[in-house]
């Protein structure tokens, strides 16, 4: 009953959309066009499989992205270089089974080689914040501010986590990481090459 985290495949987008829109009020809804935009542009778009079935997904992007989320812009106005988790969704029947932790471990493994910080937000107006904030706090995320999203009127706690390995990686390897299989960027065949950000 292992959890496999891997890049999303195009034929899975309908299932991903259904998972997102069944996740409840803590996750903003998506339509097919928006999800297609993520598929074509997101730096990190991975799914988790458990027992051969889709158990969840995580979408993320670096601070260089042209992402139009007001939460993303809030972070970019205040921090020069970070990896942003736009959303993580775990199927209701799989919650509490380690899928979320597997995603965050995978996303951090990717991020800490490329960015000094990770960023995400937690909606505060949905009555379920304590377990969600506790989950993020256990991974080292701390609130750095709050933001009211103009598109929804919802208030979000803005969370960031320092990635302590980034400085060592940058000092040791510079912007050119070794071409090892576990280091290659997710979805590299789909996305155009980008310049790696530098720590400021």
Automatic annotation (TrEMBL):
Superkingdom of origin organism: Bacteria
InterPro entries (alphabetical): Acyl_CoA_acyltransferase (IPR016181), GNAT_dom (IPR000182), UCP028520 (IPR016890)
Domain N-acetyltransferase, chain residue ranges per copy: 3-165
Keyword Amino-acid biosynthesis: no
Pfam family membership, one: Acetyltransf_1
Keyword Transferase: yes
Keywords for this protein: Transferase
GO MF entry, a single one: acyltransferase activity, transferring groups other than amino-acyl groups
Ranges annotated as spanning the membrane: none
Name this protein carries in UniProt: GNAT family N-acetyltransferase
Organism name: Montanilutibacter psychrotolerans
